[in-house]
Amino acid sequence: MKIYLNMFLMFLFFCTPALAINSEDNTMSNDQALTSRQQAIIPIAAFTADGNLDKLKPALVKGLEAGLTVNEIKEALVHLYAYTGFPRSLNALATFMTIVDERKAQGIEDVIGKEASPVPPDFDKDQYGAQVRAKLAGLEKDISGAKWQEFTPVIDTFLKEHLFADIFVRDVLSHQDRELVTIAALANLSGAGSQLGFHIGAAMNTGLTETQVKNFVSVLTSEVGKAQGDSAQKVLAEVLKTRKYDSRY
Questions:
Q1: Looking at the domain assignment, is residue 205 inside a domain?
Q2: For residue 14, is it within any domain?
Q3: Whole-angstrom Cα distance, residue 69 to residue 182?
Q4: Which of 68, 169, 175, 190 is most deeply packed, by most CB within 10 A?
Q5: How much of the chain is helix, strand and coil, in % rounded to 5?
Q6: What number of other Cβ atoms are within 10 A of residue 21's Cβ?
Q7: CA–CA separation, 51 and 71 (whole Å)
Q8: pLDDT at 32
Q9: Is position 145 within any domain?
């Protein structure tokens, strides 16, 4: 009996710490990974971007089941018109409307969620948009004097006053969620590597960790495609390399 007791104590001594460490590692990993709600955003945005409505349909259902509200998904699809154009955004919204109606007919009551808060009448779009863009870029003040701004000033105005003000001020989605929507869409668009690089950095400037952006690439690979995941991984590697040697980070 004593022998068995000693063996049991030895088991506890040698194995329990290992089990505790593994448990802690799993907890840390789960804490740092994207939530199921955030992960569900990725294929929704990606398939909206390339117009693949057949793959978008199950992604939208999965998003609702992962905890996204109807208004959050609608907001993500509206947000995307600034990056993918009205045709893709409107097609995605029509698809989503059909799904919501079908689920309602089946007796499924999806959570509608909150509406956007009213914007103050004295809202300064130029100032707000400049502040948002600076924050996303990791700068203390907004960029000015760039060649593209001087060449086409109106696009700079539209970016500040419409995209980063009219759209980003809507609080149905956080700025972090909006950047996750954006990088998922850009990762499934050809020729948008430089924009993807900026917005991966912007996503991290809203608080996404290195682990979470790596998780983004993993989800993109499994849910959207290996080619898209590989391409995004290369862009991410360059972003991380730049941030490593940037004193701001």
A1: yes
A2: no
A3: 18
A4: 68
A5: 75, 0, 25
A6: 10
A7: 21
A8: 83
A9: no
Q: Which tokens belong to 167?
A: 């759209």
At position 211, the amino acid (one-letter code) is T
The token duo for 112 is: 């509608």
CATH number for the domain spanning 230: value is 1.20.1290.10
- Structural domain total, the chain: 1
CA–CA dist 139, 186 (Å, integer):
22
Write out the residue range of the structural domain in which residue 105 sits.
35-117+170-244
Per-residue pLDDT of the chain in tens (249 residues, 90 and over written 9): 434 434 333 333 333 333 333 333 333 344 589 999 999 999 999 999 999 999 999 999 999 999 999 999 999 999 999 999 999 999 999 999 999 999 999 999 999 999 999 999 999 999 999 999 999 999 999 999 999 999 999 999 999 999 999 999 999 999 999 999 999 999 999 999 999 999 999 999 999 999 999 999 999 999 999 999 999 999 999 999 999 887 677
Residue 135 domain flag: no
Distances (CA, A) of 56 to 59, 62, 191: 5, 10, 22
CB atoms within 10 A of CB 62: 16
Q: What is the C-alpha separation between 179 and 201, in angstroms, rounded?
A: 9
d(CA 149, CA 137): 16
Amino acid identity, position 181: V
